[in-house]
Amino acid sequence: MPKASEIKKNHTIVYGGKTCIVRDIERSVPQGRAGGSIYRMRMYDVVSGAKFDETFKDSDMLEMADLVRRPVMFSYMDGDEYVFLDDEDYTPYHLNKESIADEALFINEKTESIQVLIVSDVPVALDLPMSVELEVVETDPSIKGASATSRTKPATLSTGLVVQVPEYISTGEWIKVNTEERKFQSRA
Q1: Which pLDDT band holds residue 138 (cuts at 50, 70, 90)?
Q2: Mean predicted confidence (pLDDT) in 35-47
Q3: Domains observed in the chain
């Protein structure tokens, strides 16, 4: 059983008899108090979809839920659902648009190394690769002679995500974006 300090985003834990997926973690260190860090976790109940916040000390022991990770690729949208196909046996997994709103900004037909998280035969979340390649669909014109270390400008990507890019990047280029920090990494 891991400590609260070892839990990461998208891990699934059993809390209060429910299987929950951790969507966000905020760490704080109280001033003037003995002891360690406090972890505030935003969790979603896998079955009901209800979200709630819970606070843990860094030494609190949490129980990991039984979880299966399957490699998938994005196939198509069906109304408010994203449909992913298993890379090995082509099993379709349907995920609601709201449950993967953050991850959807990094997904297109070419995105590789996506994993779907399955709890009790129900797909509950996506695990993205560290970086993805996306196309710049709108940005200010590139400036001739702009250096790589100079100022940045906003760029809208093919999925609707807006990131800051160096001035030398122009519309139509493909770039690598870090999925955790939501930042430009390099040209693709």
Answers
A1: very high
A2: 82
A3: 4-64 (2.30.30.30), 68-127 (2.40.50.140), 131-187 (2.40.50.140)
